[in-house]
Here is the input.
Amino acid sequence: MALQLYNSLTRKVEDFIPINPNLVTMYVCGPTVYDFVSIGNFRTYTTGDLLFRVLSENGYKVKYIMNLTDVGHLTGDNLGDADSGEDRIEMSAEKEGKSSRDIANFYIQDFIKNYERLGLKKPDKFTKATDYIKDQIELIKMLERKGFTYKITDGLYFDTSTYKDYGKLSGMKENESGDGARIEPNLEKKNPLDFALWKFSPKDKMRWQEWDSPWGRGFPGWHIECSAMILTELGENIDIHAGGEDLRMIHHQNEIAQSECATGKKFASYWVHTAFLQVDGGRMGRSIGNAYTLPDIEAKGFTPAALRYFYMGAHYRKKLNFTWEALQNAQNAVKKLYDLVGTYEESKDAVLAIDFLDKFNEALNDDINMPEALAVVWELVKSEVAESSKITTLLKFDEVLGLGIENYVGFEIPVEIENLARVRTQYRKSGIWDKADLIRREIESKGYLVEDVADGFRIKRKV
Ligand code: AMP
Ligand code: ZN
Here is the structure.
């Protein structure tokens, strides 16, 4: 089966057909780097990673970009108006007594460290919004020239009524206001859903980050960065655009509006949205104190692989509930898999278990169905397939699973265990069963199993 993906734009599962079969282009909306990145955010980046790996399994080369938002993401976003409130980066700078640039650099470094610890495929580039200010200004100029903008007191805005397809992704029309609008609307806007392309610096307050533009000194609106970076790095139209489900209604709808109005081309073919990670059945949030980070879970003895396995236990479009118990179950499963692999005997005659590989790939190509793919892993482990072939097949699976299975393949039998087993065989040959039994138990207490075979003994790791 060829790769099929659910497309949030058409709300259907579709065959994946790239614009250029030789190079798939993919963009994932990355973090706003004003604080530590949570395991909620990392769920969305794990979907990006899995998409990348599944595309590679299907033989595609992928050009992959992820942005880092270091300017313009305002606090009003959570209250239904992304053009109001304070710039998150500037706010953290004030709180921590550092410059905006230092704040961004600090959290970027921390993010990338955890990204690597989770073994996520690195994009070709992590693009920082402040490195693309010129590109953003150029794009806004293009929109202005084509008559899609208007200026009000606090900035230059996109006029959503000029774009007939507004609402294709979100389902909202330009004269509606977002469900979440819980703050006073900006009455100068022509339509409630119009959004800022460029915001002017406040008169009464100094900003760390501001730039000159044809419209006045200020900073870019939140949405324009993604459109501009995509245009510069990947071109006018891309294959896959992904992010968390919260971005679908406003941020992604606005990216489409800007990009399609500027270029006159379709922006992205497939929109992939990851459902939120919840905690104990409710919202995860910094203010609630449950926006756990990778170091938080590692401090409790959990491994990055356990978190990855936990993510893969649910389909990316289903909400996933984080509990410590669920993470413990994931860690147990990963450990069991490592232990089993450690007991398998390698052989030069190993072959791929093709039936299992086919089933595994079918699950991947069925809209990245990781729970189904994991089920195939356990079916293989329980099957009659030769141990050496199990190893070969699991290593192939692991190109997508990313659990580091290769580190557990093959094992050295400690000399001490080997000697004990030899002595035991001697006792058995002499019919001294009680002593042989005693040694067997000693070997077991050291974590190994000894089996009697025709030409002597065989040692396995105990699971
Ligand atoms: P932000 O740092 O808020 O700009 O979010 C960065 C990315 O993480 C976006 O794609 C969000 O949609 C996503 N995200 C944020 N919180 C969660 C969550 N609890 N579960 C899954 N994805 C999330
Ligand atoms: Zn974006």
Observations:
- The first helix runs from residue 39 to 57.
- The chain has three domains: 4-274, 279-408, 415-461.
- The chain has a mean pLDDT of 93.
- The longest strand covers residues 62-68.
